[in-house]
Design goal:
The structure holds 2 protein chains of 2 kinds. Chain A is an alpha+beta fold. In chain A, 45% of the residues lie in helices and 14% in strands. Classes of the chains: A alpha+beta, B alpha+beta.
């Protein structure tokens, strides 16, 4: 038993590291270190840099322009990206709709959609959740009625991330009301410019409208935009939910934030002439998190080793989701703790490009509470942690 | 032994609850937060007329009585409604410092105006590097003939933007963290050299960073003895801690109640999510947390009004802040999680209560700080 990389893998790690050091734009790095948000253009620019290198889609097969990397190589790449703070590809195109198109789309659909995803020419968003279909996704009610060569779509989707940037949306829609709820769902691709689509931004607790409600009012969609067979959408969606789970644990990002915490703690006065890194209870909390992060990292490596020998991703990935998200939330709390009074000002604009307002506290301290608020979403989205625990109880423990 | 409210306390609670029910719904609160002042002047006048602004003050000072138990009865009701009016900064902190340190003349000048609603106060004590230690003061007050000259800057001054007068904690002698040498000065917000950088806190309340650049203050504007203000400052902050902890208890109980109600109407998988035992147990734990928080706040409030030693009083205050902090973390996070996505939005009062209690945990020292303070005493 060992957790070592081979010589080739180590060489690959060096290659990735060198590439990121030289090609990840310094101004992006500075923004990320300052807790600022990258704009859509910046995210696309970075993605196109990866595309030029041929590294845009680590998880895609080579025939579609993927890297053809092993699981270990993908892990190394994701780790190095996370450690340097480089943003992952926007998942909706690359990691969510693309695998479904590859597996169930027609050749024509593959030609039409995949190259633009790979080169980041088209921004995708997700139309899954509805106001009354969250954890119970299969009870969704948005309908698509066949009318000649078109579907007429009516309904509302919610928790749609960055739909304001999107060119296309992939949706789960109900095409049959007369059968068991999972059996009447279809997977439909819809052009966001279609007449009848409106977006209503939802402002979250950090003051940012990161998500939207999307309304469909008699939206015409060509039948050619249906993926696979009508009423088989639930099967396709399930593939999407289990397909790309790599890096779901967020270990590299956790390590990066832990380093930042130690640095900030050293610069934070304890009010008694010392600094917070010398504060015993804070140090214990840091240690607890570091230990948990190590347990998580080795759990991820064990899962990875199983995937490398060809095992399908199993319910174990639920462990990574639960622990990874809850760990990230604990890290948020430590940033709030360190910031003290400086976390209290509500300055949503601080995350935006070109924020010129007066800095209200030292460093990123005014970002701490807002990040804490926003990251409460981590244990809610992507299959809530309750759903993950249900998966473990049912599929692992057989309860 | 009797944990019931007196008739007067019951009337006070009824009076606040009635106001909140009739005049302080979620939309009204949002309108108030978005207004220029960040609180309602009309409400403030009403609070004065209803006598609420007299509650923190002793009868000798012309107040309702000044017991900490009276205060928690009222603050808990404020917490349930997530009230943003600056009661704590003006009446408890500012007014409290005047009552504790002021001469009869200073009290006569200021306290009636606090109680009739015509004077807004703010207490400038925290500094950028002081963290939660009240004795860490680098803002200086240097003697210059019959006046003092204040230099330095303060952070997290609640109600700073609206305050007519500031109670500024400054050092007349000693090193930055010495316990002696600290005084409190009454400074007009309009004084030359005072600059107020106003902002809104995460909980919608207004606050400011305030800098003092050679601000000249007559000696007569010092409250209490030169360099001897720390004990009184600590006592006033301790009372504010108990009061805001009670506010947190009210807010947490509102979060629990709203979560339970939501779990009864939110249906997933064909049934109300409140029927899932996994969620039932978590809401039961939220209830337990609320009850323990309530108990320890009552304990601290009763001890403040008792003949216990100052040490015991201080310990009980830190015990309450620490324990309430734990309850805040548990109850508020669970309230969001059980609500799911909708709890993450500005559209629901749950998120606003969540942000308020998060701010309360930070104010006057977070749970960890007070656990350490408790252990050190």
């Amino acid at each position: 038993m060992n957790a070592d990389f081979t010589t080739e893998e180590l060489a690959f790690q060096d290659e990735v590291r060198d590439f990121l050091e030289s090609e990840f734009p310094a101004e992006f790095r500075a923004k990320i270190d300052a807790s600022q948000r990258l704009s859509k253009d910046e995210i696309v620019r970075w993605q196109k840099i990866l595309y030029q290198k041929g590294w845009a889609a680590p998880s895609w097969p080579e025939e579609h322009g993927g890297t053809g990397w092993t699981q270990i190589q993908r892990h190394i790449f994701a780790t190095e990206m996370g450690l340097i703070g480089a943003p992952e590809p926007v998942p909706f195109g690359m990691k969510m709709v693309a695998p479904v198109v590859m597996a169930y789309g027609s050749d024509e659909q593959k030609q039409r959609f995949l190259p633009d995803i790979l080169s980041s020419n088209v921004w995708w968003c997700q139309g899954y959740s509805e106001p009354n279909a969250g954890s119970d996704l299969a009870s969704l009610k948005t309908t698509a009625m066949r009318d000649g060569d078109e579907y007429i779509v009516n309904g509302a989707k919610t928790w749609n991330t960055y739909g304001q940037y999107a060119d296309w949306i992939f949706c789960l829609v109900r095409t049959d009301n007369t059968v068991k709820k999972q059996e009447g769902i279809s997977f439909l691709l819809i052009d966001m410019k279609s007449p009848g689509i409106t977006l209503k931004p939802i402002v979250l607790l950090d003051g940012h409208a990161e998500v939207n409600e999307v309304f469909f009012d008699d939206v015409s969609v060509p039948v050619g935009n249906l993926i696979g067979e009508e009423n088989k959408g639930w099967t396709y969606a399930k593939l999407l939910l289990t397909h790309e789970r790599s890096n779901i644990a967020g270990v590299p990002r956790g390590k990066r934030r832990l380093r930042a915490l130690k640095r900030i703690a050293k610069d934070t006065d304890d009010g008694f002439g010392g600094n917070m890194l010398g504060n015993a209870s804070f140090r214990n909390k840091l240690a607890d998190i570091e230990i948990q992060l190590q347990a998580l990292e080795y759990s991820e490596l064990r899962t990875l080793a199983a995937l490398s020998v060809g095992k399908a991703p199993g319910p174990e990935s639920s462990i990574l989701k639960v622990v990874g998200t809850e760990l990230a939330q604990e890290l948020d709390e430590l940033f709030v703790d360190l910031a003290g009074y400086h976390c209290l000002p509500f300055v949503p604009e601080q995350f935006e490009d070109g924020f010129q307002g007066a800095q209200l506290g030292p460093g990123n301290s005014a970002a701490a509470a807002l990040t804490y608020f926003n990251n409460r979403k981590l244990s809610i989205f992507g299959g809530s942690n309750e759903i993950q625990r249900n998966i473990i109880s049912k599929h692992v423990l057989g309860l | 032994m009797d944990f019931s409210y007196t008739e007067e306390q019951q009337m006070l609670q009824d009076s606040v609850q009635k106001f909140v029910q009739n005049s302080y719904d979620f939309d009204t609160r949002n309108t108030i937060i978005a207004s220029d002042d960040g609180y309602s002047l009309e409400n403030w006048q009403l609070f004065a007329e209803l006598g609420w602004l007299t509650v923190p003050f002793s009868e000798a000072d012309g107040g309702f009585g000044g017991s900490a138990v009276d205060l928690i009865v009222m603050m808990e009701a404020f917490g349930k409604a997530n009230l943003v009016e600056p009661f704590t900064p003006t009446a408890i902190l500012g007014g409290g410092l005047v009552a504790a340190l002021g001469t009869d003349a200073q009290k006569a000048e200021l306290l009636p105006r606090v109680m009739d609603g015509s004077l807004q106060l703010a207490c400038a004590y925290a500094e950028s590097t002081s963290r939660f230690n009240l004795a860490s003061v680098s803002t200086s007050a240097e003697s210059d003939a019959d006046r003092l000259v204040i230099n330095g800057s303060k952070v997290a001054v609640l109600n700073g933007p609206s305050a007519d007068k500031l109670l500024v904690v400054a050092r007349e002698s000693g090193a930055t963290t010495d316990r002696s040498g600290i005084s409190v000065f009454l400074v007009d917000s309009e004084s030359e050299g005072v600059s107020v950088q106003a902002y809104t806190n995460v909980d919608g309340k207004r606050a400011a960073r305030i800098s003092f650049d050679c601000v000249a203050v007559p000696v007569a504007q010092r409250l209490g003895e030169a360099g001897g203000a720390l004990v009184a400052l600590q006592a006033v902050i301790d009372r504010a801690i108990v009061a805001t902890s009670a506010e947190a208890v009210g807010a947490l109980e509102a979060l629990l109640q709203k979560t339970v109600e939501y779990s009864k109407i939110r249906k997933q998988f064909g049934t109300a999510i409140g029927t899932f035992q996994a969620l039932q147990h978590r809401m039961a734990d939220m209830f337990i947390e609320c009850q323990l928080a309530r108990s320890i706040v009552i304990m601290a409030a009763m001890k403040l009004g008792s003949s216990e030693s100052e040490l015991e009083k201080t310990k009980s205050v830190s015990a309450a802040k620490s324990r309430v902090g734990r309850a805040i973390e548990k109850v508020s996070q669970e309230a969001i999680q059980i609500h799911g996505g909708i709890g993450m939005t500005e559209e629901l009062d749950v998120g606003h209560l969540f942000k308020r209690v998060t701010a309360i945990d930070v104010m006057f020292g977070n749970a960890d700080y007070h656990t350490e303070r408790f252990a050190s005493l």
